[in-house]
Amino acid sequence: MNTQIDNEFTFENLSLVIDVSDVQRILGIGRRQAYELVKSGQFHVVKTGKRFKISKEVFIGWLNGTPLEEGVSNVWLSK
After folding, report:
1. What is the pLDDT tens value at each position of the chain, 79 positions in all?
2. 20 in a domain, yes or no?
3. How many domains does the chain have?
4. Does the residue 9 lie in any domain?
5. Structural domain contains residue 8
6. Longest pairwise C-alpha distance within the chain
7. Which residues are within 8 A (CB) of 74 and not within 5 positions of it... i.e. 6 or more apart?
8. Which of the ends of the chain has fewer CB neighbours closer than 10 A, N or C?
């Protein structure tokens, strides 16, 4: 995804599945911080190979303070 900050940024413009660079851009944090957050278990993440993917809906819910549902865990898929 484009790493430039878009003045017309809206959540509607995001694809259904976002990645670490999107998290970084949305929150205005560094790459290392974005990876730490994604790996923290605060919201559901799917890892395929070396890539982390997050549902836009889950991420927005996390931003709004919706807790991770009990019994939901991160999914790590091998290549």
Report:
1. 454 555 566 778 889 999 999 999 999 999 999 999 999 999 999 999 999 999 999 999 999 998 777 555 666 554 4
2. yes
3. 1
4. no
5. no
6. 38
7. 41, 44, 45, 46, 47
8. C
Q: Is residue 10 part of a domain?
A: no
What is the CATH number for 34? 1.10.10
Question: Do 23 and 8 form a contact (C-beta atoms < 8 A)?
Answer: no
Strand, coil or helix: 48:
strand
Q: Judge whether 3 and 20 are in contact, CB under 8 Å.
A: no
For residue 54, the enclosing domain spans 16-77
What tokens does 32 get? 């290392």
| pLDDT of res. 14 | 87
Residue 45: CB atoms within 10 A of its CB come to: 22
This prediction's pTM = 0.74
